[in-house]
Amino acid sequence: MCYISLTFRGLCNIHMKHFSRPIYCTTVVNTKEWRVSRGLPINKNAEGILTDGPDYTFLDGRPTPLLQKQKLRMLKQRDFASKIVELNSELEFAKTRHQKMLQAKEEEREAILRNRLKPKGRALLDKK
């Protein structure tokens, strides 16, 4: 008879009739944390010379065609770059618009101060 018990810490224990031996199961989260803590990418197959390089080369020096995943990765990076440029231009537009709104508000305030009621008659003569 053999059965597996799972404790709350994620440790797997296999219990046999006369023999008991703990087996420790590493979770995917622990593996990802370990890779990130050492400065490695989360997915070891996501980048690197084996992933990014060509599968073969021509002896006469011709360029090799791109693989399907390389094409997809290049298109994805191109989309990221275009999105960054678009968002950057929107940010610059928002900054300039905000500055123009502040400047218009200040000009409106100054116009109100210039056009307010001025003293007339005797008060104007006494002021000079």
Relative helix content: 40-55%
What count of helical segments does DSSP give? 4
**Fraction in beta strands:** 5-15%
Strand order, sheet with most strands? 1-2-3
Q: Would you tell me the overall average pLDDT?
A: 80
The stretches of 5 or more residues where confidence is low (pLDDT under 50) are 5-11
Explain this structure to me?
The longest helix has 47 residues, at 68-114. 0% of the residues are buried. A three-stranded antiparallel sheet has the order 1-2-3, with no helix packed on it. The chain has 128 residues and is mostly helical. It has helices at residues 28-37, 49-52, 68-114, 122-127; strands at 2-6, 12-16, 20-23. The protein is elongated and about 105 Å long. A hairpin with a 5-residue loop joins strand 1 and strand 2.
Please name the defining characteristics of this protein.
single chain; mainly alpha; 11% strand; elongated
